[in-house]
Amino acid sequence: MTSPVDQATVGERVVLAFHDVRKTFPDGTKALDGVSFAVPRGQFCVLLGPSGSGKSTLLRCVNGLVAPDAGTIEVIGRRSSPRTLPEIRRRVAMVHQHFNLVERAPVGINVLTGAIAQVPAWRALLHWFPEPLRNKAVALVLRVGLEPQHLHRRVGELSGGQQQRVGIARAFLCDPDLLLADEPVASLDPTTAQDILSLLREAARERSATVLCSLHQPELAVRFADRILGLRAGRIVFDGPPERLDDAALARIYGHGFPTDRLELAA
Amino acid sequence: MIRAIRPRFRDTAARLDPPYDWRTALAVLVVGFCLILSGQRVELDRFTALTGEAILAQLGLAEESQVGRGLGRMIQSLFPIAVEERRELARLSEIDRENLPWLARIERVETTRYELDRQTLQLVPIVETKEYLVEPFGYLLRVLGKMLETLEIALWATILSVLLSAPLAILAAANYTPHRSVYLAARGLVSFLRAIPELVSALFLVLAFGFGPIAGILALGLHAAGFLGKFYAEDIEAADKKPQEALLALGASKLRVLRSAVLPQVAPSYVAYTLYILDRNVRMATVVGLVGAGGIGQELKGRYDLFEYDHVGTILVVIFVTVFLLDQLSARLRARLL
Ligand SMILES: Nc1ncnc2c1ncn2[C@@H]1O[C@H](COP(=O)(O)OP(=O)(O)OP(=O)(O)O)[C@@H](O)[C@H]1O
Ligand SMILES: [Mg+2]
After folding, report:
1. Does residue B63 surpass a pLDDT of 60?
2. For chain B, what is the mean pLDDT?
3. How many Å is the Cα radius of gyration of chain A?
4. Through-space distance between the first and last CA atoms of chain A, rounded to whole angstroms
């Protein structure tokens, strides 16, 4: 296989590039063991891998929630370092498995906090967001499939699927160049999961945002991804389009004994 | 051998032993013995004897008791409570007889005193007329004014404690403090503030700032800041981490994360703590008044020292009614805000 970095750089602009990134946690767990790949602009790239393979760690390295031990990460043309991290974080949004919303705050405020790092300090502290931003938040809430009356509802009172819609609206508020999603549908039922992933994909495409999304279900990956990265024990063991994710590839990612019939059922 | 006879829960044997053994019994005995020793030191025996006597006296089974007599005399002297204010007119220079204060009247009281006539060596009665300015609700109004002052002391003490403890709590929260040394200093200061009883600091603050409300506000405010600082900080530490991480990942600074992800979570309990502090400050403002830190307590101490127990009665009634009303009010406020 040719190097994934070379593949991506041909003719397209690279939004995210990992070069031999390693991370070992203090307790000795090797979470990332020499990871290299590059993602071109606009791609919907899905991370697959068994539990504990390092998907969350990889995603969290991109926005600096985890600091890698070795290797370099380039995000939107900047090499990740403590100095560039604030700027990187303002242009990279994240959607979380557990939504990570402020449950006691209303939907509107939760969406507006997507811009919390971009407005002047006094506006951030008073929650006095400028009108264009407020209008944009309303438009986004409607775009992700919520109703106007949800705007003033506390997030804690919404269903899981509705909460993830709020999470997506928050992530898109500031038109991120790169969207990270860590198992965004893991706590949702299958139908809602499909709806949320379609929404994520379309909203990203409208804004030509790049997406790096970890998933647990290969069938969903095959359906939504432009490209799939397979992770196992901190190493990339598969990199290719969904069509190439065959039984052999799944066995490489999940080990033998993976029930491949699930995939045929979904297809 | 002993382990074989008395296996503990952590042993692998699949059995459940009774929850107590001889160690528990021994501990109960030791604690009981210590309590008996301590009870003698604080005169619990005398307390039991006196109380028992008082109850028997009430039931008519014994002669009058010391406690019953003392309490009875005290309560009798509180009533009727003083409502009017009566002052000798001759001592009031600024009173205009034609234009008396609202509801006020002048009362003449004739007093007869006997004086020795030097010539006849007989006691002759001399009739004197004294004039009093009587304000029918004068004293009640005065006490209500003092009660208002106490409430104001409590209110400002609460404001002071919130203003002090909010920044202190951020410095004293392990996950938001700028530095470990700042954290330790803030924690130390918070404990220190909480450790000094209001009454003690009021004693010293009265020396520094003189008699009056300033000492009261400072004494109550500083103590409450220690209390609030601790509880605010612990709530910040215990707040759900997930939304905080989400905002951090968006590039928000610590202060912005605090405002947007932590404050909404802790707000309900902050309201509860602050209402409790306000409630406590109202009661404690009365107490610190006793050492001269303003408000109704200062009035109470003055009248008590002058043996004017009917005035003391008025003050006590006003305190009870106020505390009762405030309790109702704060319960409603809490229900509305939480
Ligand atoms: N803060 C941490 N301290 C120590 N070990 C950690 C920490 N975070 C993750 N790990 C370990 O690193 C490895 C990779 O974890 P990671 O969360 O990235 O896996 P994952 O692929 O996201 O798994 P899942 O699908 O269950 O979410 C695991 O073995 C995990 O136990
Ligand atoms: Mg994970």
Report:
1. yes
2. 88
3. 19
4. 27
Are residues A113 and B255, on separate chains, in Cβ contact within 8 Å? no
ipTM: 0.88
Say whether pLDDT at A258 is over 70: no
**Alpha-helix runs per DSSP H in chain B:** 2-5, 22-41, 44-58, 66-78, 138-171, 180-195, 198-209, 213-238, 241-249, 254-257, 263-289, 295-305, 309-337
**Cβ burial A174-211 (10 Å sphere, 16+ → b, else e):** bebbbbbbbbbbeebeeebbbbbbebbbebbeeeebbb
Taken in order of first residue, the domains within chain B and their CATH numbers are: 22-78 (no CATH), 85-136 (no CATH), 139-337 (1.10.3720.10)
> In whole angstroms, what separates CA B109 from the centre of its chain?
42
Q: What are the chain B neighbours of A113 within 8 Å (beta carbons)?
A: 247, 250, 252, 260-261
Q: What is the mean pLDDT of chain A?
A: 90
Q: What percent of chain B has pLDDT over 90?
A: 51
**DSSP string of A103-124?**
TTSBHHHHHHGGGTTTS-HHHH
Pick from B240, B245, B256: CB nearest A116:
B256
Cβ contact B264–A100 (<8 Å): no
Cβ separation B255–A127 shorter than 8 A: no
| Amino acid of residue B7 | P
pLDDT digits (tens, 9 = 90+) for B167-189: 999 999 999 999 999 999 999 99
Residues of A in contact with B261 (CB under 8 A): 102, 113
Ligand 1 atom 24 nearest Cα: A51
| Amino acid B78: pLDDT | 83
- What angle do the packed helices B213-238 and B138-171 form, to 10 degrees? 40
CB-based contact (8 Å) between B243 and chain A? yes
Query: Which of B250, B262, B265 is the best residue to mutate to test the A interface, defined by the most A CB atoms within 10 Å of its own CB?
Result: B250
Q: Which residue has the tokens 């470990």?
A: B180
Lowest average pLDDT, out of A2-6, A249-253, B100-104, goes to A2-6
Nearest by CB: A100 against B243, B253, B255: B243
Percent share of chain B, pLDDT over 70? 96
pLDDT tens digits for range B104-127:
788 888 888 888 888 888 888 888
- Give yes or no for A63 touching B (CB within 8 A): yes
Residue B135: closest CA among B181, B187, B72, B82: B82
Nearest residue on chain A to B242, alpha-carbon basis: A100
- Write down the domain spans for chain A: 4-266
Q: Which residue has 């010293």 as its token pair?
A: B204
d(CA A223, CA A216): 13
CATH 3.40.190.10 for the A4-266 domain, yes or no: no
